[in-house]
Design goal:
With about 240 residues, the protein is of the alpha/beta class. It folds into two domains: about 140 residues, HAD superfamily/HAD-like (Rossmann fold); about 70 residues, DNA polymerase, domain 1 (Orthogonal Bundle). Helix content is about 40%, strand content about 10%. The protein contains nine helices and six strands, in the order E-H-H-H-H-H-E-H-E-H-E-H-E-E-H. Helix 2 packs across helix 3, helix 3 crosses helix 4 and helix 5 runs parallel beside helix 9. The N terminus and C terminus are likely disordered.
Length: about 240
């Protein structure tokens, strides 16, 4: 471990904090683990929830690279129906039960304090999700954090899903900020990689201590939690830290 994160190749370290911090929502802010119980409720193994969500993202990415911008909820429902066929007596009701779980997932324990610390630092906060704006709205409203965010953005209003460059450009245009003055915060390496390609600064929230994929662009910052990220961004002389 070093005291400072490694700058991008050919770039000098940039000590100033970003003008805008753009948050991914699903799994970055929200804790999706309770969705396992929803799967068990309808007769599916709980561990299949994570596989389903990964497959949902895969299908969305596939449609994105072929020129479509699918609705997150429609893809999610269709993939659930396929899993529930032959398992649930009423596939539509079981699908609805699982999907309603999105409206009840909690925040990760570090999120509320981290967001308030970032807000107190004077940073402008927005979200950018591949899901619907209503999901982010409900999550933040339930947890008393909606006031901390200037805007809640969804790729539904962009040309394509993240990690397509046009999704990040949509957020930059909406916030009227240059790419170099924006930072994407996510738990997903694919999101970090896409934002880097679009010219944004990036921060990876690594709550599980896993290794970052060597095949993807490394984040500018890595933090164990949003509270740690807030501390890093509130210290202008520190660019962050990198881990082996």
């Amino acid at each position: 471990m070093t005291d400072h994160a490694t700058p991008r190749s050919g770039e000098a370290a940039t000590p100033s904090p970003p003008a805008v911090v753009i948050f991914d929502v699903n799994e970055t802010l929200s804790d999706m683990s309770p969705m396992a119980t929803r799967f068990e409720d309808v007769g599916l193994p709980g561990h299949l929830a994570a596989t389903w969500f990964a497959g949902l993202l895969r299908d969305g990415f596939a449609q994105t690279i072929t020129g479509s911008n699918p609705a997150f909820a429609e893809l999610a429902q269709e993939s659930l129906r396929g899993l529930l066929q032959g398992v649930a007596a009423d596939v539509d009701a079981a699908t609805g039960h699982v999907m309603s779980g999105f409206a009840q997932v909690p925040l990760h324990p570090d999120v509320a304090d981290g967001i308030r610390a970032l807000q107190s630092s004077g940073l402008r906060l927005v979200t950018l999700s591949n899901g619907a704006t209503a999901v982010a709205e409900g999550l933040l409203e339930r947890n008393g954090l909606r006031d901390a965010f200037d805007s809640l953005l969804s790729v539904q209003d962009a040309p394509a899903w993240k990690p397509a460059a046009s999704a990040y450009r949509y957020a930059l245009e909406s916030c009227e900020v240059a790419a170099a003055d924006a930072m994407l915060v996510a738990v997903h390496p694919w999101d970090i990689h896409g934002a880097h390609e679009a010219g944004l600064r990036t921060a990876w929230v690594n709550r599980t201590g896993r290794r970052y994929p060597s095949t993807m662009h490394r984040p500018d910052l890595e933090a164990d939690s949003l509270t740690e990220l807030a501390a890093l961004l509130s210290t202008p002389s520190t660019e962050g830290r990198a881990r082996a």
